[in-house]
Amino acid sequence: MYGIDTDGPGSTSGAVDLRSDTLTRPTPAMRRAMAEAEVGDDVYREDPTVNALEERVAELFGHQAALFVPSGTMGNQIGLRLVCEPGQEVLGDADAHVLTYEMGAAAALFGLSSRTVVSDGGRLSADQLIEQVRPHGDWHLTATAAIAVENTHNRGGGLVQPLAELQRLFDWSRGAGVNVHLDGARVFNAHAASGVPLATYGRLADTASVCLSKGLGAPVGSVLVASAERIAAARLWRKRLGGGMRQVGVLAAAGLHALDHHVERLAEDHEHARLLAEQLGVDPATVETNMVVVDDVPAPAVAEAAKAQGVLVGQVSARRVRLVTHLDVDRAGIDRAAKVLTQVVGELTGR
Ligand SMILES: Cc1ncc(COP(=O)(O)O)c(C=O)c1O
C-alpha cells in the first residue's frame, strides 16, 4: 500500500524526514506564542485568538469570513458541502485530494456525487473540466454543482496551477451556475513560488480551504474562507461533525505565528527542493515548489535503504518516491539526504 503522506509509523528522531511537510514540529517561538495565547470558548465565539486568525485569513484571501477547522480534510469537505447539494456532483481531477484521498467523505457524509477527469499530471485545464460539466434540470444527468481545484497539486508533485487557467475557469463558472472550491492545502507554497497574491487565488474560488499545518509548520489547523453567509452555515456543519472546539486559541496562535514568520521562508524550502533535484539528476523543471518526485526507482527498496541511513522518503507508488522539503530540514539535512539518496538510487538502479 502506498500512502501519500506516510511511510508507516515509527520513531524518526534524528532522521532527515522528507516524507511530508505535515511532519514539522512547532518551533520554540511558536510554542511560546501558543503558551501565551489569550483564549475563550470558541463555540461561543469567545476565543479572541481564533477570532483574530479567522479575520486575518479571510482578509488575506479576499473573502468576507473564515472558519478555523481542525484539518484540511474538514475544511475541504465542509467547503464542498457549502457549494454542492446531496445528489449533485463535484467535478475534479482524478488525483485531487478532496475526491481521491479523503476516504470518500463527500459521499459518505453528505451524499455528494463526484466525477473526475484525468489531467496532465495534475495541471489544471479549464476547458477539460468545462467540457465535462453536466447541466442542472436534466431528467437523467447528475447536475455538476461545483468544480474542485488543488493548488499546489500534491500528486502533481507540488505543481503551481497556471493563473490563466484558474481565471478562465472562475470567469466561466460565473455564467454557468457552477461554484469553484479551492483545496489550498499548499496555496502558500503556490504564492511563494509564483508571486501571485493570496487574495488573487482566494478570489478565484467560492470556497477555499487553506492549511496551517503543511508548509507553514503549525501543529494543527486549517481555515475555510467564503462569504459570510456560507461561513455561518459552515459553522453549523463543523459543530455537527464534532469539530466545535473550545479554548482553541492555543492552536490558532500557532497559525498566527506561522503567518507572521513562516510564509516568506517557504522560498527556502523551494530552493532546497531544487538543490535535491539537481543532485539526484531529476529535471529541475518538474520542481516548482517543495516536492521532488523521483521516478523509475524501486520505491520500497529505496525507502528502506535510505531509512537505514537516517533519511526518510515517501513512497507514492511501486516505482516512485517523493521528497518533501520543509521547516524541519535545513541545508545540512538536504546535503545529507542528497548524498544518501544518490548512493542508494545508484546502487539499486545502476544509474
Ligand atoms: C492537497 C491536500 N489537501 C488536503 C489535505 C488534507 O489535510 P489534513 O491532513 O489536514 O486533513 C492534504 C493532506 O496532506 C493535502 O495534501
Automatic annotation (TrEMBL):
InterPro entries: ArAA_b-elim_lyase/Thr_aldolase, Low_specificity_L-TA-like, PyrdxlP-dep_Trfase, PyrdxlP-dep_Trfase_major, PyrdxlP-dep_Trfase_small. Residues 1-27 are annotated as: Disordered. CDD domains: TA_like (cd06502). Gene3D superfamilies: Aspartate Aminotransferase, domain 1, Type I PLP-dependent aspartate aminotransferase-like (Major domain). Its cofactor is pyridoxal 5'-phosphate. The modification N6-(pyridoxal phosphate)lysine is found at K214. One of its GO terms (molecular function) is L-allo-threonine aldolase activity. Belongs to the threonine aldolase family. NCBIfam families: GntG_guanitoxin. This is Threonine aldolase. It comes from Modestobacter versicolor.
